[in-house]
Design goal:
The chain has a single domain, classed as Bactericidal permeability-increasing protein, domain 1 (Super Roll), CATH 3.15.10. The chain is built from six helices and nine strands; from the N terminus they run ααβααββαβββαβββ. The strands form two sheets. Strands 2, 3, 4, 5, 6 and 7 form a six-stranded antiparallel beta sheet that branches. Strands 1-9-8 form a three-stranded antiparallel beta sheet. Helix 2 crosses helix 3.
Length: about 200
């Protein structure tokens, strides 16, 4: 049996080591700080002398979306999370399509939106490429509450959502990149923006 003093000393040593390790771990920036970083980078991109390239992290994008969610998505979306991979954006959204400003002409499509009124989890995989000031994306996959949506209906919904943007950004069509960007790369965990020289 160990003497009580050694066990107590070992416990104190382990506890102090744990405190030192926790103190040495850098604090993760809070939501407002990350959103502020993203906003500062957007201001840089809009400036008359933008940097040659600017990296916006996945965490900064998600924080910016969270802080500005109501003005970006009205009241249709409650929770939005973006994950970035090479040339792909993966988005998870909890939203109520009935609250979105989507205009559908087909009775079948309107019925689908009516069925999906109320909150549902949407997961989209989007392929994105850009060059020469022009972007283009296509919806590769759309799931609602874990069920894959048929391609034809997913295309209609993506087209309507893309047309809500200013300027409109329908899938499969070229659109001008914002902030006078020459191109925007989607990389794992970040967007890298390349402005046109001014």
């Amino acid at each position: 049996m160990r003497p009580a003093g050694r066990t107590g000393a070992a416990a104190v040593l382990l506890l102090s080591l744990g405190v030192v390790l926790l103190a040495a771990t850098p604090a993760r920036p809070d939501l407002r700080t990350l959103a502020g970083r993203c906003e500062a980078k957007l201001i840089q991109l809009k400036s008359s002398r933008p940097p040659a390239s600017l990296r916006v992290s996945e965490d900064e994008v998600n924080a910016y979306i969270e802080v500005h969610r109501d003005e970006l998505f009205y009241s249709a979306a409650r929770e939005i999370r973006v994950r970035l991979d090479k040339d792909r954006v993966h988005a998870q959204v909890i939203a109520d399509l009935a609250r979105a400003k989507i205009k559908l002409e087909s009775p079948l499509h309107r019925a689908f939106v009516w069925i999906l009124s109320g909150e549902h989890r949407y997961e989209a995989q989007i392929h994105f490429r850009s060059d020469n000031g022009v972007g283009r994306y296509r919806l590769e996959k759309l799931r609602v509450d874990g069920v894959t949506v048929p391609d034809s209906l997913a295309a209609v919904l993506a087209n309507q959502a893309g047309r809500l943007n200013r300027p409109p950004m329908p899938p499969g069509e070229d659109f001008p990149l914002p902030y006078k960007l020459r191109r925007c790369e989607v990389l794992p965990k970040a967007f890298v923006c390349h402005p046109r020289p001014r």
